[in-house]
Amino acid sequence: MSKISKFFKGGGSAASKGRGGPSPQEALARLRETEEMLSKKQEYLETRIERELAVARQHGTKNKRAALQALKRKKRYEKQLNQIDGTLSTIEFQREALENSHTNTEVLKNMGYAAQAMKKVHENMDLNKIDDLMQDITEQQDVAQEISDAISSRATFGDEFDE
User: Fold this and answer.
1) What are the extents of the domains in the chain?
2) What is its main location (predicted)?
3) Secondary element (H or E) of residue 148
4) pTM attached to this predicted model
5) CB within 8 A of 68, min separation 6: which ones?
6) Fold of 24-149
7) What value, to the nearest 5°, has the Cα angle with vertex 79 and ends 60 and 77?
8) Which of 41, 73, 75, 107 to pair with 100, CA 20 to 30 A apart?
């Protein structure tokens, strides 16, 4: 595809949407980006919770209204943090499922490739010819064993007399 047609048709993800959806690698990359973004937001909310707790302690009994407002904000941040935890769990589950399905797809492709190779190798083999060859090999092994037995048997030159 030329550079001009890529420019007018769109690049990367736009082209993949035309093919029927993003590739597994693109989807995994996006899920990882989302996980990173949510992790950063978690860290931010955790620091905000600590800060609001410190403000509530600071105002303690002196300014109850400010302390209560800080505790309300802290509670709201904790609720957001719990939502992010749930979302992260869902995204991690989806990412793992996608990785597993991608792995299974690759394994299946490779097994199909190997099956085709085996089929090609066995194309020129005839079961009757193989059976005949195995019988010939067995016969030749028997002959070789007989020769070996004859050579290794003790020679009795002159020990036996014909009377």
Assistant:
1) 24-149
2) cytoplasm
3) helix 127-152
4) 0.56
5) 56
6) Helix Hairpins (1.10.287)
7) 50
8) 41
